[in-house]
Prior knowledge:
Chain A is α/β, with parallel strands linked by helices. Chain A has 9 helices and 19 strands. The two termini of chain A are about 30 Å apart.
Amino acid sequence: xxxxxxxxxxxxxxxxxxxxxxxxxxxxxxxxxxxxxxxxxxxxxxxxxxxxxxxxxxxxxxxxxxxxxxxxxxxxxxxxxxxxxxxxxxxxxxxxxxxxxxxxxxxxxxxxxxxxxxxxxxxxxxxxxxxxxxxxxxxxxxxxxxxxxxxxxxxxxxxxxxxxxxxxxxxxxxxxxxxxxxxxxxxxxxxxxxxxxxxxxxxxxxxxxxxxxxxxxxxxxxxxxxxxxxxxxxxxxxxxxxxxxxxxxxxxxxxxxxxxxxxxxxxxxxxxxxxxxxxxxxxxxxxxxxxxxxxxxxxxxxxxxxxxxxxxxxxxxxxxxxxxxxxxxxxxxxxxxxxxxxxxxxxxxxxxxxxxxx
Amino acid sequence: xxxxxxxxxxxxxxxxxxxxxxxxxxxxxxxxxxxxxxxxxxxxxxxxxxxxxxxxxxxxxxxxxxxxxxxxxxxxxxxxxxxxxxxxxxxxxxxxxxxxxxxxxxxxxxxxxxxxxxxxxxxxxxxxxxxxxxxxxxxxxxxxxxxxxxxxxxxxxxxxxxxx
Lengths: 358, 164
Ligand SMILES: Cc1cc2nc3c(=O)[nH]c(=O)nc-3n(C[C@H](O)[C@H](O)[C@H](O)COP(=O)(O)OP(=O)(O)OC[C@H]3O[C@@H](n4cnc5c(N)ncnc54)[C@H](O)[C@@H]3O)c2cc1C
Ligand code: SF4
Ligand code: SF4
């Protein structure tokens, strides 16, 4: 049995920031990620980020990931376990991790869960044909492995992810036939939408996919316009010749470990699904278990990093570690988080968070 | 409408255009950023102080056209690729449009490309005048296009004619 002060599950922006901040105060940390690289979603984000200068706006996600990962790898207080999956959290406070076919039992004094989110899917006939992918999968193929998923793509969903992945497909030389969106408005930032539209990709709001066409693989898709009640309007069906249908219909928090640990959970649509209740310290209803990033509510990398920092500081502080600037550091992070969530686009997040505070 | 199509309307554009008198004086930046989003790198990137300080990170950029010299520094910092520089004084019949560009291949100076409007439609041929792609720009090239003057407020993208 391994003893450790803080175990962090998830090496995305939230987990990395948590590890750096906890170790800054002097705590000993194990950081666990099932991938063979650190950085989580960031590793696929080749575009520049929004936000403010303090949160490294205008930098590319991939560069932020590389820098944070390097800092973590060279930090003596942090032990990194990659290709390691946290399988379960047990009543006696033991975290079971599988790495290279071996099971490692870890008994941490504090746990920070930063497992991020999982993609949602969509129900329609033939959605099991090869060629129907999640946007995250397409992004992994294109930006991590350098593989084109196909020649011509229909993107379903005009949120930030659908629009940005469309842009990245164009950059990779893949044609995007259209982006369709069931809602009456584009969910992505309009500047993102404008840049794919001028690059030749039409966005059709109030449209849905009726079915995929093909026997053994995707050969096309039938789309149709929706009426006020989100019902397909007969006669508006259109067939698009595509070999990939890419679903970008949202993420949902990856909360299995929190359920197992017995954390109080609540369903908050604004945050993407079931999320843990947490206090201002980001501690859940189970003392010693903290959450940070998308697992606590689907948001943004900048917010994930801030939450990670906060959870890291708080978890280390609860073990008795401190520094001269601790109070200011915490306050600063809280202020930045409030800033990020302040405007009209942050309204949904604010509404969501109000429903899950302890 | 912009929120339905991704294409800014005439009204959207009218609200942010520099006046004709300013256009007659040389290059000037136009920020086609119409939504209150938490983003402010454009403000931090302008050394001329031409972009008004943001009171709130969700503010939209307000450019003081008299302070802006059209240097283009803000263009490659904008994550939305929403800032363009237009120089109406470039020639008698041609204007210069500077476009942020993140596709390959990067065209060469002298090359003729197809100029594209905000809806993704070709509108004219354009000539590449200059390619700025320094390290500071971090993979967002700025391409200077000479376009027929009547299209200077329409051209916001281009396509290379054939892949070399
Ligand atoms: C296409 C796209 C565009 C985006 N654009 C932006 C943007 O412009 N600006 C912005 O701020 N944000 C953006 N984001 C959002 C941002 O990437 C995420 O919000 C952020 O990565 C969330 O961070 P996280 O650390 O919570 O989770 P993740 O990055 O998802 O990391 C979670 C990590 O946990 C690991 N993990 C999960 N379960 C286990 C387990 N049981 N055991 C071990 N490891 C586990 C995963 O492998 C993963 O590495 C975008 C996201 C996408 C998909
Ligand atoms: S073009 Fe130059 S001067 Fe004008 S707003 Fe941009 S950075 Fe400032
Ligand atoms: S940097 Fe670009 S997207 Fe951000 S506020 Fe400025 S103009 Fe808008």
